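Appendix B, Record 12. Input sequence as logged:
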Amino acid sequence: MKFSDRYGSWGVVAGASQGLGAEYADQLAARGLNLVLVARRLELLQALAAQLTSRYGIRTKCLELDLSEADAAEQIIMHSMDLDIGLLVYNAAYSAVGPFLDQSMDAHIRELHTNIHSPLKLVYLLSQRFLERGRGGILLMSSLSAYQGSPYISTYAATKAFNIVLAEGLWDEWRTRGVDVLVCVSGAVQTPNFAASLPQKTGGLGDMKMLPAQVVSEALEALGKQPYVIPGRTNRIASFVMRHLLPRTVTIKFMGNTLRKMYLKSNSVNHES
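Logged structural output:
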């Protein structure tokens, strides 16, 4: 089945302004989907929309929206009621990087709202439409940091663990009803937001970054075939070793040492995609 036939003529990309979100928008547009582009920075969305329209001839709708707001999901639904939405890609994320108590309580709550509250509500609201017509797709972004405790990004990692478990459960619940669910569990990606977190070189796995195009290509290829994907062969091997061959306390300490080298030499930074 053609991609646009499988998922309808419109898709939603939340967190679309740059990096992975912009790459999702580009690859989905290349597959013929019209797109609702959602992010906080309207000027970046409008520039992206113009590029996609010129390159692929698709239609776009830009929504300037902070996905940490309590009613963000409802606003997206309200502004897309008249569109044939068949695919949700939730790429938006907020991460407070640094020692736990150095971050304000508001920053931790913002992580919960952006990374859990908004995607959960969007999945709940859009899936009703998808299940009624018997087709659709949901793709949530997660992180390798979610597979174990990850010091200095503890809340972020915990929110991303929620997305893994949610997507895997819904994949089995809906796989015979025409709705594809996938979680993309990504390692470090070479994006403006990753650079904005000011990571220091570690001389190890923390320095390995994939290109957005590689991550998005593997995720879209896996959609409809399996419940989760870890892009990148090296990431898959490292994840297998850390989850299945090493004691859990060792993997937690490894993450702590890596993130300590990456971030404790610089100031704590909050970044959003």
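The radius of gyration is 18 Å.
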